[in-house]
Amino acid sequence: MDSVGVQQSVSSGRRIVRVDERGRSEPFGAEPVAASGDAWPHLTLEEYLRGPGEEREATLIHHMLVLNIGAGYRRELRWGDDPTVLRYTFQPGSISLFPAGTRFRVRWLDEGHALVVTVEPSLLREVQGSKSRGLPGLVPVAQASDPLLAHLIHGLREVLRMPRASQGAYGAPIGHALATHLLAHYGSSNMLATGGALPLSRLRRITEYIDRNLDAPLTLRELSALTGLSVFHFARTFKERTGLSPHQYVLRRRVDRAKELLSDCRASLAEIALRCGFSHQSHFTRAFHLLSGMTPTRWRERDAHVEH
């Protein structure tokens, strides 16, 4: 990945930290190429350019946003105790949201260039005012396209390049705008009120249902009915949770199942296609080649060669 233009500006002071399994606070496992330090009272921004790797399971102290400012890269994400591992390509310009108190583990298989911003929950409470008691919550999002939020994060990055004396005056209004946007679009109470939330328990129920019924048509209306959400809200929140549309997710699971069945040389391609929910063998072949880079026949031949 092209690293030209990455600013080597790391301010001293506060770092983004999380709590590991032993209750110890620790920063990320790599040094940022740029960091805000103590430039703003309720916000921290760090820029990372990292090769393939992973972050150990930990819990966040503050809300965290990750904006991909480089090329798309493959990512594996697991939330809390949910055994489901979300595998997807984190697209350029996409954003992930990890609410305060969220436990997660993430692994990336390619080089990644990202801006990471943490927001103290107290800032959201300050922006919200006296509308409700307690600290407002946010919903976790694996991948979302949000041009305005991305613009605000880029704005913070530009402020970090200003003289130190100017950073506070310019950064504070951007921070308040960012907090206002988070509450309006990702606040847990707002999402529940509009039917937009897809709890992890429901997501697990949907993915298990898909795996049990890969030989069936699996319509969007059918899947949305299992969640109690409208078709529109289900499709939107499913993609936010998994990084894939329901159709893309089902197609990938069908191909994954086909790979398992291809190891049984006694099954014909036509039979495998039907058992994986493809209406025609030609449709199966096209989808398989699109997602794996080779035909089912070639995959079977390669698999047999590896075994011998």
Can you characterise this structure?
With 308 residues, the chain is an alpha+beta fold. The chain has helices at 121-128, 147-160, 164-186, 188-193, 200-212, 220-227, 231-242, 246-262, 269-275, 281-292, 296-307; strands at residues 9-10, 17-19, 25-27, 34-35, 43-50, 53-60, 63-68, 73-79, 86-90, 95-98, 103-108, 112-119, 141-144. The chain has two domains: 9-193, Regulatory protein AraC (Jelly Rolls); 200-307, Homeodomain-like (Arc Repressor Mutant, subunit A), CATH 1.10.10.60. Strands 1-4-5-12-7-10-13 form a seven-stranded mixed sheet. Strand 8 and strand 9 (86-90) form a beta hairpin. Helix 6 packs across helix 7, helix 8 (246-262) packs across helix 10 and helix 9 packs across helix 10. It starts with 8 loop residues before the first strand and ends with a helix.
Question: Main attributes?
Answer:
308 residues; alpha+beta; Jelly Rolls; Arc Repressor Mutant, subunit A; 2 domains; 7-stranded mixed β-sheet; 43% helix; elongated; disordered N terminus
The CATH homologous superfamily of the largest domain is named Regulatory protein AraC
Beta content comes to 15-25%
Separation of the first and last Cα atoms: 38 Å
Global shape: elongated
The largest sheet, given as strand count, sense and whether it forms a barrel, is: 7 strands, mixed
The CATH C-level name of the largest domain is Mainly Beta
Spatial extent as radius of gyration: 22 Å
Low-confidence sequence ranges: 1-8, 191-196
Number of separate domains = 2
Q: H/E series, N to C?
A: EEEEEEEEEEEEHEHHHHHHHHHH
Structural class: alpha+beta
- CATH architecture heading of the largest domain: Sandwich
